[in-house]
Amino acid sequence: MIKDAFPKESEEEENTSKTIRFTRLQHLKFQNLPSLTTFSKEIDSIEFSSLSNLDIYDLAAFKSLCTQHNSHISTDINIEKSLVDGNVSFPGARRLEIRGLNTVHEIWSSEVKSTDFLRLEVLVIKSSCSCKSLFSSSMAEGLKHLKELQVQISDCKMMKEVIAEEEEHRPGKQTKSFFPQLERLELGSLHDLRTFCHVNHSLE
Per-domain residue ranges for the chain? Predict the structure, then answer.
C-alpha cells in the first residue's frame, strides 16, 4: 500500500535540509489512493512553481501535502492537520479542486500566506472534511482573483462560517474587501453554517 509518494531516505540524511522543487509540473492529480497519507514525508518544503491545477479525489487517509522533516504522520483521524501549510507553495495555481477528503481539519494553516494563492481563480471543495471555517480573513482578502467558489461538504456539522475572524486584529474601523472578482458562489450541505463572514470590520 502506498502511504507517501516520496518516502524517508537513509538515516545519514536525517539532519540535512530537504526541499523538492517541481519547476515544470503544471497539473497534479491524486485519485483513488485510499492509503496515501502525504505527498512527501520528512521533507522540509515543496515548491510547485509552475503548477496551475491541483485535483485531490477520494483520498480517505490523506492528511497533508508535506510532512516536515523529523515529524510524524499520525493515523489518528482526530489529530488536526492542514492540507496545505507554510512548507508548500504553488504561487501559480489557478484551480484547486478537492473531493472525497475526509481526514483534514483545515485546508490551509495559519502559516500559509495569501500571496501563495494570488492567482487562484477556482476553488471547489466537495468532501466530508471537518473544517470549522474555510478561510481566515487575511487569507480571503488575499484571493483577489478568485472567480468561482463551490463548497459542498456532506453532512458537515463543523463549519459554522466560511470566513473566520482572526484572533489578532487592529483596533478601529477598517474596511475588508473579499473576492472582488467572484462571479459564482455555491454553498451546500453545510447544516450548521451560521454566517458567511465573521469579521469585526466594514465590508465591501
Answer: 19-203
